[in-house]
Each structure stands twice: as structure tokens, then as C-alpha cells.
Amino acid sequence: MPNPLPYPAASTGPESRSVLAIPAFRKLWNSMAFSSFGDWLGLLATTAMAQELSNGDYSKANFAIAGVFIVRLLPAVILGPIAGVIADRFDRRRLMVFCDIFRFGLYLSIPIVGNYFWLYTATILVECFTLFWSPAKEATVPNMVPKNKLESANQVSLLAAYGTAPIAAIVFSLLALVSTAISKFLPAEYSSTADLALYIDAISFLYTAWIVYQLREIPKGSASGAAVNENIGKALFEGFKFVSGSKVIKGLIFGMLGAFFAAGAVIGLARTFVGDLNAGDAAYGILFGAVFTGLALGISLGPKVFAQFSRRRIFGAALTISSFFLILLALITNLVLAIFITIILGAFAGVSWVSGFTMLGLEVADEVRGRTFAFVQSLIRISLVLVLAIAPVIAAAIGRHTFKFENFEVTYNGAAFTMFAAGIIGVIVGTISYRTMRDRPNVSLWSDILAASRGELGGITGATHTGIFISFEGGEGSGKSTQTELLKTFLEEKGEKVLLSREPGGTPLGKKLREILLDNQTGSISPRAEALMYAADRAHHVYSLIRPALEAGEVVITDRYLDSSVAYQGAGRVLQPSEVARISRWATENLTPTLTVVMDIPAEVGLSRLKSLDRLEAEPLAFHERIRQEFLNIANTDPERYFVVDATQDKTVIHQQIVERVMQMPLLSQNQNEKKRFRRQ
């Protein structure tokens, strides 16, 4: 059974196609695809056989199907930490061929023996062999492709692992349709849908063994430096120690566990749920395929469709929506509607899935990322085993219930009740996760949806650099230049490398543009032309100074950034602020400050501090009042990123307030803690 923790689905663009042009890797990829196809088809077949062996007993069927899922997951929980170590000591090619031949024999034997004991025993053995086959395959991939194509190779490997699930579901459904005809040529006990699927499953592994046997390019020696899985208990302890201090990561992991709790209930009860709808194996295959079709849509399209939302916000929202559709699915008694709802449910689950794993990569520091992922993997495996064990028990205990409403009558079974409860839990978990991560707390999700539809949100998708980006905004005479200098000095005393810049004028090109834009002799400039000139300065500023410094891990402080254009050329010049923001977001490739300090001061007070007035400062008071109000409006949309300071206070007081807020930034706090540890050593 594929690892329950896939990474985000990969694209199949030019890079993916080029890596498949490597003959040895293409053969290995074919073996992965057939092996994964066999795993998914085997899952469908063994759960279907478990129900068949129950002879129509509802409780027995639930327990039997739960048993299949539990025995498929238990080897990973128990043997997973050491399987990679053992596999690393053998010849990879021979080990993979050996495992595939045994999986062939085991799947072939299940329909021949035809009882629960051997179904569970063979399933456990299959999973054990898979645990050895997988690390041998993973260690082989880097030897098959150049280093610059390794990422593409991993992407198409994921496609082979998870893209074959809908294909297996289609094959299973087709077998259900033709099993009646085949039963005329074979004895009934060997020609059921589950039996036929298991035979094909066995053949797929035999074919995989033949492909790998021909791959002489696989190194015969053991892999040096191969990754070794940590002990689950150790991973849980160390992972908990690192994540317990982060509110965001706690909300993220809590939400991911809730997602898998709901998913476990659906997986464990899908077969009996379909039976409750008076449908057979073909419908089970279609419903199974619908889940993965939805997941694929959510994983591949979700990041594009919801690109304007922050990952923190969309994660909790998508999880909640997915759980709502699970509740709706439990109430549906029509198979066609159930399949349609399952696709939507899967799509939002996919969005939540890819957002969650992307955030783990972005929010967790590099040195603890491995332990955090091990912690999450261990928790999810354990939670899946528990849910798969408990959900069918609850369903069996609830049983069938009929409700009458005057002339209308409807019957719900234990599977529907349990899925309904799982959906309720998922909604609660999603809501708590959404609120815990505190993304834009004073702005409703609906407001964000409306803003996104107008293109006003921008691509708030998290940092892609290791530095810290702080911008200062505010009206004329607010003291931004003074405070940026003071903050630079403070951070350098703390050992940080700081780049201080300004807009316009932070680059040689910017200085020339600044002369044109602010010189009184320039005269009137078209508001749109003015906005484009500021955007041009900003684009070059980011390209030549800001982004290189951030990628080098420095702290960047800029006196004015994107919000100044929105306030001055948007509100001040009475253009559409959303249009001005869109231009600057395009110019900066959506580079967003980690923190924006807004120096708030009444326009009249700020202007009175100036000794001479440039072209913008000489604008009427109403112009500057509109600018001040727009800065406050912008800050109100995202209180977590914006910090508004009363700029009428003494500069020392203002500096202290800014320093206190800056030192709360997680990455800066982490840097300072590391420096303290280094000094102690």
C-alpha cells in the first residue's frame, strides 16, 4: 500500500518528459507504475473479498474490511523503522525481484485458499515485502538520472505511485461488469470480481519482477549514505518537542490529523457504504476512483485556483469544506450524487493536503524538518490504524435504522452514521485549525473571496527565501527614515547582516527615476504613467538588491515598498488601488514583506515637519489625508503582517515599540537563539 503521506502531485511538463527519455529510468518507472497499480488493485480486491466472505452479515463485513486495512498498515508501523536499514544491506536488483515474485505468489494464493486467515496473513506478508521493495527503489532512482534531473524523477515517481489509483479503480469496475460472463467458463468460487482482480494483481507483480530483472544498470552494492528511518517513539518525542512551541505548526498538524481521521473513516467504510446503497463491486470501484480523481484535481489545480490566498487560510478552509461534503455524502442515498459529492470532497481534501505539506516545508526550520515530518508520519500512521479499527466497530454497533416521515421513509446504516460523525469532527478540527493559525484574524474569508475575485489579494503564498524582509510605510514627515536607521543599527548589534534601502532611489536606476518623480520642475505626470514608473523602480529594486539579499539570508529593510504605490497612486491619485497593487505585484513577482511597519501620523502634523516640499509633498492636504486613510485600510486587512505605530510619539518610544514587534518574528527569534547557543559553546 503506498505511503499515506505523498508529497504534492507533480506536473508532467517538459522536464518530466525529458527524464523519462532516459532508458534505464523509464524501465524503472514502468516497474513503479505496475507495482503501484498492483497495490491499489490489491487493496480493492482484498476489501471486496473480505465482504464476500462475510456472507451478508453486516457487522461481520465491517469488521472484516477493517481487518484488511489494519493488517495493511501495521507492518509499516512496526517494521517501517528498520525495513530501510535491512534493505540497504542487500543487492537492490535481486531484492526487488525477490519481493515482486513473492508478492505475485501471495496475491495468486489468496483467491485459491479463500478464507479470512490466509487473506490477512497474505496481506501482512505482502506489505512486509513492499516495505523492503520501496527503499530499494528509492535508493536506486538517484543512480538512474543526473543530479539536475533528480527532482523531475521524483515527481514522475509520485505520478506513478498515485496516478495509478483511478486506473486500478476503472479496471476493478470493468471486472465487476464482466465477472458474470466469465463465471460461465470458470467455477463460481474462482470467478468473482475480487478473484479476477487478484489474478490480474498477481500478474502485474510478475511483470514488474521481469522488468527489474532486466535492469542491469541497478548497482549491485548496497547504497552508501542511504536514509534510515527513525524509531517511531523517538520521532514522536523529538517531533513533539520541536513543534509544541509553534502555534502555526500545532494548528497545521492538528488539522492534518483531523483530515486523515475523516479520510480513514471514509476508506474503512466505503465498501459497506456502497453496499448500503444497493450497489456492487463496480460501484465500489467507481467511488474509490472518484476519491482519487478528486484528490488529483485538488492537488494539481488547487494551488493555481487558490493562488491568491495564503496557505494558512486555505488549509483550514479547505479541510472544513471537505468535511462538510463528507457530512453531505453520509446523508445521500443516491449513488450518482454520492460519486459527484465524493469528487468534490476529494478535491478540497487535495487542496488541504498539498497546502499542509507545503507549509510544513516552509514553516519548519531546515535542521528540524526531518524530525517534524517523521513526527507527522508516525502520528498519521497510528491515527489511521486506530480509525480503521474503530470506525467499522461503531458502524456495526449502530446497525440499520429506518426513519419515517408521514408518507416518506428512509433507511440509514451504521456506515452512514459513522461517516456523518467523522464529518462533524472534521468540520470542528478544520475550524479550530483555521482559527489557531491566526491568518488575517480581522478579515472574513468571504471578504478575501470577494477581493480575490477582483484580483486584490495577490499571491500570498509564503516565503521562498531564508531572509527577513521588513518594509516601512507612512505619510510625509512620519519619521520612516529615522526609524529604519535605528532598526538597522539595533539588528547589526545583534549580529544580523542588514541591507537598508529605499524607494524610489535604492539603485542607480532608481536614483534617476527619483529625480524625475520628485523634482518640482518635472511638472504634471499622468497618474498612470507615475504608477508605472514607480513599478519599474520597484521591479529593478527587487531584482538587483532585495531578492539577492533575502536569498543570502540577510535582513532587508526598505523605506517604502508596494503599499506606498497603492496609497499614493491609488488613493491619492484616485486610481483603482487594486489595479495599482496588481501592477506592483507583477513587477515584484509577488514578493511580500515579512513585516510592514506603518508610521501613522495626521497629514497636517507630518507636513508641518518638512522644511521644503518636493513634487508629491506639495500636493493639497486632502491628497495626503487620503493616503493616510489608505495605509490604515491596508493594515486592517492583515493585522498579523502589519504593525501600526503612532508616529506622533517620541522617536525613542517608537523605536522601542518597533524593536519589540520585530523581535517577535519567528525566524529572527530563531536566528538569535542559534547565535546564543553558538556563543555558549
From TrEMBL:
The keyword Hydrolase does not apply. InterPro entries: MFS_trans_sf (IPR036259), P-loop_NTPase (IPR027417), Thymidylate_kin-like_dom (IPR039430), Thymidylate_kin_CS (IPR018095), Thymidylate_kinase (IPR018094), TM_effector (IPR010290). It is a multi-pass membrane protein. One of its GO terms (cellular component) is plasma membrane. Keywords: ATP-binding, Cell membrane, Kinase, Membrane, Nucleotide biosynthesis, Nucleotide-binding, Transferase, Transmembrane, Transmembrane helix, Transport. It is found in: Cell membrane. GO terms for biological process: dTDP biosynthetic process. SUPFAM superfamilies: MFS general substrate transporter, P-loop containing nucleoside triphosphate hydrolases. Residues 472-658 form the Thymidylate kinase-like domain. It catalyses: dTMP + ATP = dTDP + ADP. Signal peptide: none annotated. The chain crosses the membrane at residues 63-87, 156-176, 251-270, 282-302, 314-332, 338-362, 374-398, 410-432. Its EC number is 2.7.4.9. GO terms for molecular function: ATP binding; dTMP kinase activity. Pfam families: MFS_3 (PF05977), Thymidylate_kin (PF02223). HAMAP family: Thymidylate_kinase. Belongs to the thymidylate kinase family. PANTHER family: MACROLIDE-EFFLUX PROTEIN, MAJOR FACILITATOR SUPERFAMILY (MFS) PROFILE DOMAIN-CONTAINING PROTEIN. This is dTMP kinase. It comes from freshwater metagenome. The lineage of its organism: unclassified sequences, metagenomes, ecological metagenomes.
